[in-house]
Design goal:
The chain is built from eleven helices and four strands, in the order E-H-H-H-E-H-H-H-H-H-E-H-H-E-H. With about 325 residues, it is mainly alpha-helical. It has one domain. A two-stranded antiparallel sheet has the order 1-4. The radius of gyration is 20 Å and the shape is globular.
Length: about 325
């Protein structure tokens, strides 16, 4: 493997990578808008069908927009980079489940800590189990496709393009900050929730660099959101009101998360940091030291070469 080398990121390469990412995102937005417009012409105003249909429609059509953009890029530019991160079906399913398990443990820890700190309580109301199931089962499908669209967009081509010039750690941090910035318009945003979103995004981005690729990140994102919905917690989603149960905030915003929900609480911070530590150990044992968090040093051991060598040996997507 390569010895220690001085790390100097060429400004030109960073600029080119940034322009490529911006062009990709712009193309996805244009194609998605065209797909949504055509869908409305063919089947009518699907957004007026209620919050479930609106959420599912946005996720499906955005994913379709990403797929069409990727196919066009492969056809016009003879590039397969848009499809990096999707391993074989068996690997995808297994790592989707592993990512989902990580999301379950982290969301469970966050909610448990919030309850223990008296930042919230579960309030059970009218409606009963049948009404609850009729609501949360289809909502789970909606969240599944919504998580796919977000992960494919944020942790697909843009993340890998930036990783090629910045390294995995800095690219992961850059995308985490951008993902947090995308939530600035949500109600109840506080500095702590932005920190928590960055930390959570670092977890998801790190999962993207496992053999599970995008499916691992997708599984985590979906289950993380769904567990909160199942408990009636706020999830920055409009018009979502789970019947029969509510995660009612109590105490100060620091322990409850305020109107944003448990994701904005100190419990989310406490639940996320140990997961980042576990991921850091996971990658370190494979010779990678800067995937969850960038290393603040000017020297490193040819990180890209190390990652690609290990990835080729273990069959990691995108290596």
């Amino acid at each position: 493997m390569a010895g220690d080398v001085s790390v100097e990121v060429p400004v030109k390469r960073v600029g080119v990578a940034t322009l490529l990412v911006l062009a990709y995102v712009a193309a996805v937005l244009v194609v998605t808008m065209l797909v949504m417009g055509l869908t409305k012409l063919l089947i009518g105003d699907w957004e007026a069908g209620g919050p479930h249909l609106e959420l599912a429609g946005e996720g499906l059509l955005t994913a379709l927009g990403i797929l069409i953009t990727s196919l066009l890029a492969r056809w016009l530019c003879h590039s397969h980079e848009m499809f990096r991160g999707w391993p074989a079906l068996g690997t995808s399913l297994g790592w989707f489940a592993k990512g989902g398990l990580a999301g379950l443990l982290m969301a469970g820890a966050m909610l448990s800590i919030t309850l223990a700190l008296r930042g919230g309580r579960l309030v059970f109301g009218d409606g009963g189990l049948p009404a609850y199931l009729r609501y949360v089962i289809p909502l789970g499908g909606c969240l599944l496709v919504a998580a796919l669209a977000e992960e494919w967009l944020f942790r697909g081509y843009p993340l890998m393009q930036l990783a090629g010039v910045l390294g995995r750690g800095w690219a992961n941090l850059a995308m985490a900050v951008l993902f947090a910035a995308a939530h600035l318009g949500s109600p109840g945003v506080t500095p702590l929730v932005l920190v928590n979103i960055v930390l959570g995004s670092l977890v998801v981005g790190s999962l993207r660099f496992t053999p599970g690729g995008i499916p691992a990140a997708w599984g985590f994102h979906f289950v993380w959101n769904y567990v909160q919905v199942l408990c009636g917690a706020s999830l920055s989603l409009e018009n979502v009101d789970v019947p029969g149960v509510t995660f009612a905030a109590s105490g100060g915003d620091l322990v409850s998360g305020g109107t944003f929900g448990p994701e904005a609480s100190i419990g989310a911070t406490m639940a996320t940091i140990p997961v980042l530590v576990v991921l850091a150990v996971y990658f370190r044992r494979r010779g990678l030291r800067d995937v969850p968090l960038p290393r603040l040093t000017r020297r490193r051991r040819g990180a890209e070469a190390v990652f690609n060598a290990i990835g080729r040996r273990e069959g990691w997507p995108g290596a």
